C-alpha cells in the first residue's frame, strides 16, 4: 500500500492514504505491532496522525516503521501476498445504543430509498458498526458499516440546530450528535445516551476502533 508521510511539528507525522479503508487497515496494523515510542494513532477519512515521544524515538525511525507496515498491506489495505496476517484489530468493545426512531427525516429517507419506514429501521439496526474516527465535535464518531441503501447525501439545507442525541446518516456514515449543534445529516432517531462526559475516562462513549449496535426502543 502506497502512502505519503510528512513531518508534523516536533513529535508527530501525518500519513496520507488513498481512502478510509487504507487508513483503518494501517491503524490496525500499527495497533497490533506498535512501533517503539508511538503514543497516539488518530485516524481521519484519508489521513492517520501518528504522535510519538521524542525522548524515546526519532522521526526517521517512526516514519520507517510506518512505511514498513504500509508496504506489508495490499492496495486496498489487506495483507500483501505472503505476509502473515496481523492480529485482530484493537477495539472489541461493543456499545449498544437504544434509539427512538422518530427522526424528522425518517419518512424522507424511506421515500428516497423506496423502502418502508420499518425497513429503514431494520436496515439501520442490522449492522455492527465501527467507530472509524472522531471529529466535528467532542464525542462525535464517524461510524462505518451503514447499509448501502442508507448511504444518502447530506441535506441540501442544513439545520441551524440539531438536538443532542440525534442519530443520523450522511455520506456513507452513521453518526450521533453529542450536543445540540448545526448539522446537515439525515435524522433517523434519537438516543438518550451521553456521548461526551468530561468526568468519564475516556470522556467519549464512542472511541475510535470500538463497535456500535443500534437497538430500537419499544413504543411506550
How would you characterize the overall build of this protein?
The structure is a single chain. The protein has 220 residues and is α+β, with helices and mostly antiparallel strands. It contains 4 helices and 13 strands. The protein has helices at residues 20-32, 59-71, 106-113, 117-125, and strands spanning 4-7, 12-16, 38-43, 47-52, 94-99, 129-134, 141-144, 159-162, 166-170, 173-176, 181-183, 186-190, 211-216. 33% of the residues are buried. Mean pLDDT is 90; it is low at 80-91.
Average pLDDT over all residues: 90
Q: What amount of the residues lies in strands?
A: 25-35%
* Assembly classification: single chain
Low-confidence stretches: 80-91
How would the global form be characterised?
Answer: elongated
User: In order across it, which strands form the biggest sheet?
Assistant: 1-2-4-3
Instruction: List the helices and strands in order.
Output: EEHEEHEHHEEEEEEEE
Q: Can you give the helix content as a percent range?
A: 10-25%
- Helix and strand content put the structural class at alpha+beta
For the largest beta-sheet, the strand count, sense and barrel status come to: 4 strands, antiparallel
CA radius of gyration: 19 Å
Number of strands: 13
End-to-end Cα distance: 51 Å
Number of helical segments with 4 or more residues? 4
